Amino acid sequence: MQKLSPRISSVFNCMLFPKCQKSTKSSDIFDRNAKRRQRESSAQKDDFAVYQYVKEEFGYRMADRVWDIKRLFTHAIELSSGSGFVTQNLTREIVENVVLCDTSHTNLDRIKCPEEIYCSKILIDDEHLPFRNECSDLVLSNLSLHWVNKLPELFSEVIRCLRNDGVFLGAIFGGQTLYELRCSLQIAESERLGGFSPHISPFVEPTDIGSLLNRAGFNLITIDVEEMTINYPSIFELMFDLQGMAESSVAWNRRLHLNRDCLIAAASIYRELYADKSGNIPATFQVINFIGWKPDLSQPKPAKRGSANFSFKDIENLNLKEQ
């Protein structure tokens, strides 16, 4: 049997498949305590910054979306801020005060805010927001919501914290994220074990996010989807980087272990199905970007049904008149 290098062996033993535990709440999908430990462990690595390329990129893109909103936000909240992936790209011209929230002490210590922005840091869990009602006019969340057990409750909490006409800007991994890795593992297990178990945590779809925002009471909802494809030498480097990102699975139903033969087979299948001419394998990160506004009387409203003075049925006649 093919031997694994010490580095790859450590990935196999410690990263994707930690020991299963019984959920304390039957409705919970994820072990939030395990995720908190992962984030703290990742933040303590000397080469922490090396693995943050996905969050860094989409943090920059989210900041760009904030700049597109032509107003000055007096008070903003960045949830699961990491090392301040969004805030580090803002200035006082757009935001005056920011509260950065994370579950990791070390992540908060790493944050270097722009000098002109007043920043405060709070150690909290995203699922339990301690803020008073209508305290902020901007809430940001960059690639962390996919680990929240109850998104409807969180969205309701966010709209509670927002002032009227406040903005909720978020980015969350979508259903096509890491589909190459998921398919390769499933094929390898099916061929060798006669069935497969989930190794990639479940993700939401764009329609889910729209429905949840609408149900929470947000107005003027906008959603778009982006994909980032990153090439790796092999499945093992991909898995090692996922560990460095603190993106290892913490689903309560995660497997105790992955058969070593299946892992080696999955690496071969991944390369056979997806590798490019140079032998590198792609990994897709699908990101759902969304924006929702807390209702306010100043916001534009749709015209009442039947109030239009022109019918779509008359469009052809309009063209004839113009001729």
TrEMBL record:
<keyword id="KW-0489">Methyltransferase</keyword>
<protein>
    <recommendedName>
        <fullName>Arginine-hydroxylase NDUFAF5, mitochondrial</fullName>
    </recommendedName>
</protein>
<feature type="domain" description="Methyltransferase type 11">
    <location>
        <begin position="78"/>
        <end position="169"/>
    </location>
</feature>
<dbReference type="InterPro" id="IPR029063">
    <property type="entry name" value="SAM-dependent_MTases_sf"/>
</dbReference>
<dbReference type="GO" id="GO:0005739">
    <property type="term" value="C:mitochondrion"/>
</dbReference>
<dbReference type="GO" id="GO:0032981">
    <property type="term" value="P:mitochondrial respiratory chain complex I assembly"/>
</dbReference>
<dbReference type="InterPro" id="IPR013216">
    <property type="entry name" value="Methyltransf_11"/>
</dbReference>
<dbReference type="InterPro" id="IPR050602">
    <property type="entry name" value="Malonyl-ACP_OMT"/>
</dbReference>
<dbReference type="Pfam" id="PF08241">
    <property type="entry name" value="Methyltransf_11"/>
</dbReference>
<dbReference type="GO" id="GO:0008757">
    <property type="term" value="F:S-adenosylmethionine-dependent methyltransferase activity"/>
</dbReference>
<keyword id="KW-0808">Transferase</keyword>
<dbReference type="GO" id="GO:0032259">
    <property type="term" value="P:methylation"/>
</dbReference>
